[in-house]
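Next comes one such specimen:
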Amino acid sequence: MNEVTKRGSAHYNKTQIRSAYTHVQKSYNDFALQETGKPWWDAFLAELQDDDLILDLGCGSGVPTRYLASRGMRVIGIDISPEMILLAKKQAPGVPFICADMETQWPRDTFDGICVFFSLLHLPKEKTAHLLHKIYQWLKPGGTFVITVVEGTTEGLCENFMGEGVPVYLSYYTKEELTSSLRAIGFSVLAVKDLYIKTENFEETELFILAKK
């Protein structure tokens, strides 16, 4: 796990997050291209229909976005990092990508599905419930929501992100805190799974949650 060395939401800094991905772009994309998250992408697709409109919130370098589009989905990717968006456009040509904050507003009942693959990693927990409420509103009735996070209990500043000496804000979650938040908002939680991942620079347990509006 990327270790949090300075705890607390006071260390949250959006500019720092953008800067971090300027430095770790290659390492991040190399990891994404391993497609360790493919079981989660397939579980999401199993709940969707051809030509459904999907929002990939915090799309990174566009690897999951590309996969979903290749399976017949209409996908929009959004990410806070300009470098990630440029890379995503190269890796998934023809898919619309927007460089913007995750909390950018969308009309109610717009999307058939929304995926948040590890994007909450960089959001303070005090902001999470508000974003999940928004996601609920953006989904059509019966829409599908999937979320992946890193399992843990801490949040704050990691000063060695991906083993590259890059500082960035990180938040870890337990199954219980996310599933209870989702149910309180109105989601039906359909599945909760975990997957252990180990790389040269870190190891972690990933949590996958599938829910319906």
User: Anything to note?
Assistant: The CA atoms of residues 193 and 208 lie 5 Å apart. The first strand starts at residue 6 and ends at 7.
